[in-house]
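Researcher: Last one for today. Full complex below.
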Amino acid sequence: MNDPILVEVTRGSLVESRHAGRAVVVDADGAILFSAGNVNAPIFPRSAVKALQALPLVESGAADAHGFTEEMLALACASHGGEAGHVETAAGALAKLGLDESALECGAHWPSFKPAGAALAREGRKPSCLHNNCSGKHSGFLCLACHMEEPTQGYIQPGHAVQREVKAALEGATGAVLPDGMRGIDGCGIPTFAAPLVAWARGFARFGTGHGFAPDRAKAAARLRAAVAAHPWHVAGTGRFCTEVMQLLGSRAFIKTGAEGVFLVALPEQGLGIAVKADDGGTRASEVATAALIARFLPMDDPTRAGFERFVRPELKNWTGTLVGGVRPAGALA
Amino acid sequence: MNDPILVEVTRGSLVESRHAGRAVVVDADGAILFSAGNVNAPIFPRSAVKALQALPLVESGAADAHGFTEEMLALACASHGGEAGHVETAAGALAKLGLDESALECGAHWPSFKPAGAALAREGRKPSCLHNNCSGKHSGFLCLACHMEEPTQGYIQPGHAVQREVKAALEGATGAVLPDGMRGIDGCGIPTFAAPLVAWARGFARFGTGHGFAPDRAKAAARLRAAVAAHPWHVAGTGRFCTEVMQLLGSRAFIKTGAEGVFLVALPEQGLGIAVKADDGGTRASEVATAALIARFLPMDDPTRAGFERFVRPELKNWTGTLVGGVRPAGALA
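Model: Here's the assembly. Have a good evening.
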């Protein structure tokens, strides 16, 4: 069954491209307020669940025992752009553990923030594992491994105590069972588990409210939300959607993207979780669909709404700066 | 009406993402040998039609009058990666006209070939219009403007004599009328016209055979095909799909991609044209769909077919080099 078109890309007066997808808005009890497409089919949430994966880091006391700062907690939830401040924060987190980048098992890639890559190239350097967008999350995993007195080597493997804790946190938050048959390998080497889109949305409604969480887990969730709200640059970076939306909305929205067109959002005041999957994996589509749903479910004053419009209907300009088209919500999101 | 799923992306044992699209295979008379999705809806071909846009450059005698080399003709059909050799060829073409990069109206952007960008950054330089993937095409437009004794300034505007010639070549090749209402602005500033996918496929069947072209136009098409077959690196670059497929298949396939998930292919020996549009604009989808259709319609010996398989079913590896999934044809293309 095809999912509905949720986002269109225009050029001149025509629709040039279009994105099908799934989107759902639920409360912490699982009541569905909005649904489009097959929201019961399993999807890999990828990096969108980093905040849930970071719950054991805080709840266990590992982060506090090792003196992790709020910036380090935000970075544990991040897909960062590899900017200098991100790299320094990750290196600082590892230093708190008496480790360095050689302990990271995430692999290296060039920073997604192009000026950071250009700066590396200018200095004749190559990126390290610290530049990997997941280096903060992995530093958090290593912190948990140290705290549990488990070997740090192999912390990305499904059978390692850290990944077993992380999986339990995901199952606890979503209420979904995550069997081995639903497991894939993420870009950074850790397990990623597929579950219904609606389950991830419910997990984020709970993450945003603590409703359905044990007290210590609810406290950990509030702590991570506060860290990201205070340091939204650490969760993505300069010019990035997650960062800019949270800079505008503050603690009223916790937003995290994942590879292959995934977004998970918590709206704590409304008690809602939002989950979006662009079927084709396109980020521009998942961004616009997510913005459209936030605009629908989060009350905003007029100046905020005006500032938010560019996320809902971004313009497309060409290399000469000429306006050539745009991206806009379609179908059930229009 | 939704188009069918043509390409799937797997992770582990699951389908993580999927791409809907349209694809059509026709001969020069317009007989349809394969069709999936709504192939009569208009699509912008974008850079996939650069070879048709270069027909007036050759047919008019402009290229020969100004001593354009075969590499410069290949670059006129190119979306190049901004590698040093591409930039030198474009600069050389402009020098033949007594012009330099200041005459280019395509705008500047960083090379898509990352080492070329890193080299620029290392030298503290920024990209110029020569690095724009369209600089070869624009050099060809300037050559035509000089040859027609028209002003070079404004050569990208719809009313300029060059763009009127280019539009006439597109209409002649496809048999489609291209009214102003179907016009958008391309990434490099020139007009792009939407027409049915099947019309673009027919245009490429004619481009590949000369069937339906006047003799001088047929000769120009053969000249451009030969230039690209001899210099496939110039039409895209290191590691790029168009280049690597043509390095494998030689003059048996003329292949060109365009932004937003478009591919146009001519199979001269078979007398066929292929047109593909990934609805969401995704390049990985259009590449795999195109490869699947080439594999179906172009006879290959066993070693060639074995070497071609990686284009039909590319593997996906993560940052640590672990195989995590793949991309594969689906539905009518499976």
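Chain A touches chain B through 55 residues (CB under 8 Å). The mean pLDDT of chain A is 97.
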